[in-house]
Amino acid sequence: MEKVTLTLQAPKTLDKSVQLQNGVVSSGDLEVVFESSDGDTLTVIIKSSVDNSAERWKALFSRIQQFNSVPAGRMLINDFGASPGVVRLRVEQVLDEAEHA
Amino acid sequence: MHNKESFIELGARQRAKAILDSGSFREILGPFDGVESPWLEPQGIVPQSDDGMVIAKGTIQGKDAVVVAIEGSFQGGSMGEVSGAKMATAIDLAAEDCLAGKPTIVVLCLETGGVRLQEANLGLASIADIHAAIVRAREVTPVIGVIAGTVGCFGGMSIAAALCSYLVVTKEARLGLNGPQVIEQEAGIREYNSKDKPFIWQMTGGEVRSRCGFVDKLVKDDVPEIKKAVEECAEKGVPEHFRTGCIDYFLETLSSYDTAEQAQPGTAEKLYEGGFKHD
């Protein structure tokens, strides 16, 4: 098991505070828990069952940032070996819900 | 074509929402309270923000209720220190509310293999707490167990299921003390093949459990139907007799069975024919 912390620049602050949860830690899946806050960074704390995956997480979030403007806050990810496609889907679901909360 | 709304496909949180009146769902100790298992991470296992246990207050047909739903896909729905304490305390507090003049219906969505082996004794202790809490609560309020599947309900939690005032199952559900793989390991594959699905469901599935009188309602995997079954059980209130109160009947029946004879699908149905009924 590995713990990875990423700090991303968050260009936008949400109008109201939101708390969102998505997904279940089951085989090949993960849960994303997001809480918005003031400030200009998004802290992503990842606990993953896959070791030596820090570079992959970094690459994945830089990809996500290319297509989304991420909100300020804290995001916890509990990952049980989800594929990059599933990770991106879950994270983007949360970002989308945050946008329209 | 499927036009039903599957309950089995729902996660624990969605199941709790489905059972409670629309819009009444209010979660206690949810994902944002940061109460996870402290034992999994040191053992290299990814924890979950709610430890696989959803506690929700709300109403059922306008009456106060608490729904405790186990997330079957997190660590097999196993009972750890935190998840077990959440369930036991929720049932206990509901009983206290009832005694304080605030009737609260208890619904347990059981989807579990029993104790979480990584938390060993703490998990077992929490299961004992759950049993004690159910026994206390069922005297003052209906405690309704729902086993939808497909994990089923095994180990110490199968005892919790049997202690409930009422039990609702689907035919996809399974209920048994030992899980199929455990029996196969202990008794041998020739006696009990855990990969033989039709055989396993004939021995421990919802249908046969219903025919033996071990459960009160056999329903389809359909949200409105399960919701209705829970509401009907809630309306019945505290039953006059509990299944686990009929010790004499069960002991007599069990001791009348000749164990030299290999149990087959159908054996249990014959043995328990005309078994326990609430009415």
Automatic annotation (TrEMBL), chain A:
Cellular location(s): Cytoplasm
Tree of life domain: Bacteria
Main location: cytoplasm
Ranges annotated as spanning the membrane: none
Signal peptide segment: none
InterPro entries: Mal_deCO2ase/Cit_lyase_ACP, Malonate_deCO2ase_dsu
Record keywords: Cytoplasm, Phosphoprotein
Record PTM O-(phosphoribosyl dephospho-coenzyme A)serine, positions in chain: S27
Changes after translation: Covalently binds the prosthetic group of malonate decarboxylase.
Cellular component per GO, a single term: cytoplasm
Name of the protein: Malonate decarboxylase acyl carrier protein
Source organism per UniProt: Turicimonas muris
Organism lineage string: Bacteria, Pseudomonadati, Pseudomonadota, Betaproteobacteria, Burkholderiales
Automatic annotation (TrEMBL), chain B:
Domain of life: Bacteria
GO molecular function: acetyl-CoA carboxylase activity; carboxy-lyase activity; transferase activity
Protein name stated in the entry: Biotin-independent malonate decarboxylase subunit beta
Taxon lineage: Bacteria, Pseudomonadati, Pseudomonadota, Betaproteobacteria, Burkholderiales
Positions of transmembrane segments: none
Cross-referenced NCBIfam families: malonate_beta, PRK07189.1
One GO BP annotation of this record: fatty acid biosynthetic process
InterPro entries: AcCoA_carboxyl_beta, ClpP/crotonase-like_dom_sf, COA_CT_N, Malonate_beta
Organism: Turicimonas muris
Stretches assigned to the CoA carboxyltransferase N-terminal domain: 1-188
